Amino acid sequence: MLRDLFGTKNRVTFPVSGTGSAGMEAAVCNVIEPGDKAIICINGVFGTRMADVADRYGAEVILVEVPWGQPIDPADVKKALDANPDATLVGIVHAETSTGVLQPMEEIGAACQSHGALLLLDCVTSLGGVPVEVDKWGVEIAYSGTQKCLSCPPGLAPLTMSERALGKMRERKDKVKSWYFDVSMIEKYWGSDRSYHHTGPITMNYAIREALRLVFEEGLKNRFARHALACKALQAGIEALGLSMFAQEGARTPTLNTVAIGGNIDDAEVRKALLHDFDIEIGGGLGPVAGKAWRIGLMGHGAQQANVTYLISALEVIFKKLGYTDRVGDASAAATRVYAEAIA
After folding, report:
1. Residues 315, 309: Cα–Cα separation, whole Å
2. Could you tell me if 210 and 233 lie in one domain?
3. Whole-model pTM?
4. How far apart are CA 32 and CA 27, in angstroms?
5. Count of H-run helices and E-run strands, the chain
6. Domain enclosing residue 338, as ranges
7. Cα 275 to Cα 144, 278, 301, distances in angstroms
8. In this structure, are 82 and 94 located in the same domain?
9. 258: helix, strand or coil
């Protein structure tokens, strides 16, 4: 089921024992050796974290950066590859949790293949909510987490590695620096050899099995459409409130919606009222956009009409109370209309 969800035939596809960040570290440490060049794309917090992990494992990190809220330009990746033809790895985040940007991948994958670099993709906020096509895009290594679009408790990190990525791992001069994440051993633990490696989180294995079963019971096409519709309805309500989306139009992930906060709006006051008065928690901005944006997750089971309309109506009440608007009902109507039109 993980292979089908990743869009891959990779033999080595399994859940790492640990959260999404463990998946990131496992993905990097198995293929990076000291001195290897790693081109890391940064347009938010988690690209920055990937660069930090690569640096800690001894990589010479080359950064490709764009302003937060924008996708990475494939031309910039090509330039970095042209300037560093011996680069081992290109790392990029598919759906950046800190900015709500969904990264187009086809051109970047083709560029990596033509230069012989391994493409590593962070799918933590995308897997199960939007299409992920590992084989089609030329991705050699990808990882995710369970607690977002899979609606599973946190504690596992789905990981997939191509035979080419495994070949890089097996050709290492030294052992993988992390014993716990060494896939050369873990593949035997998960494979036919059944060679003991560590105590597996068995209850989490049952949990992800059930979560994946529910994903495929709904069907990927239906699931992706449900996430897209929830995002469209939310955006309609947000804009009716007089706000705008933070991520660049045309490059927004439906799973994590970022809202730009106007100068007169008290970020903390609104989020506090949502939590205390309506039992709704939304994320504040991270890093450079702290206090400037809200992060609203519509992932997995959470991407439902009831959740969208409840949030928008709650924001209307709070905005009225704090004097940000005199109109109540327009935003709720805008969000509801999207769902009504979808039914029609």
Report:
1. 10
2. no
3. 0.95
4. 9
5. 13, 13
6. 219-343
7. 28, 6, 20
8. yes
9. strand
Two structure tokens written together for 91 = 């790392």
Give CA–CA dist 197/199, Å, rounded. Answer: 7
Confidence check: pLDDT of 190 > 90 = no
Angle at 160 between CA 155 and CA 165, to 5 degrees: 135
Longest dimension (CA), the chain: 67
Tens of pLDDT, residue by residue over 233-277, are: 999 999 999 999 999 999 999 999 999 998 789 999 999 999 999
Can you tell me the distance from the alpha carbon of 165 to that of 140, in angstroms, rounded to the nearest whole number?
A: 6
State pLDDT tens for residues 1-48: 999 999 999 999 999 999 999 999 999 999 999 999 999 999 999 999
Residue ranges of the alpha helices (H) in the chain?
2-6, 20-29, 45-56, 74-83, 106-115, 134-137, 163-170, 183-190, 202-218, 220-240, 267-278, 305-322, 330-343
User: What's the CA gap between 26 and 54, in Å, rounded?
Assistant: 11
Tokens of 104: 């187009």
User: What is the rounded distance in angstroms from the CA atom of residue 86 to the CA atom of residue 167?
Assistant: 17
Q: Rounded to the nearest 10 degrees, what angle do helices 183-190 and 163-170 cross at?
A: 130
209 plus 291 within the same structural domain: no
